[in-house]
Amino acid sequence: MSATEAVARVNLIAGLISLAAGGRIERGFPTPPEVLDYFRDKKLAPRFSWLDVWGEEHAHAFTVAGVLEERTLAEFRAGIDQALANGTGFDKFKADMEKRLKPIGWWGPRGVADPEGGKAKTVDFTRPKRLQTTFWSNVRAARAAGQWDRIQRTKRALPYILYVRTTAGDPRPEHLRWAGIILPVDHPFWRTHFPPNGWGCKCAVRQISAAQAARLLGRAPEDGGVIYRDTPPDERMRTFVNRRTGQRTQVPDGIDPGWHSNPGIGRSRTLGRILQEQLDETPAEFAAARVQKIVAGDGFRSHVIQARARGVRREAVEAALKASQRPADLVNTIEPWTFATQPVAVVAPGLARDLGVARHTVVINDHAIAHNMTHRLPTAMWRIVQIALDGDDIWRRRDDGATVALAIVDGKLWFAILRPSPGGGLQVSTLFRGRGGRDGSYARKQVERCDRIR
Question: What is the predicted pLDDT for the residue at 12?
Answer without folding.
Answer: 39
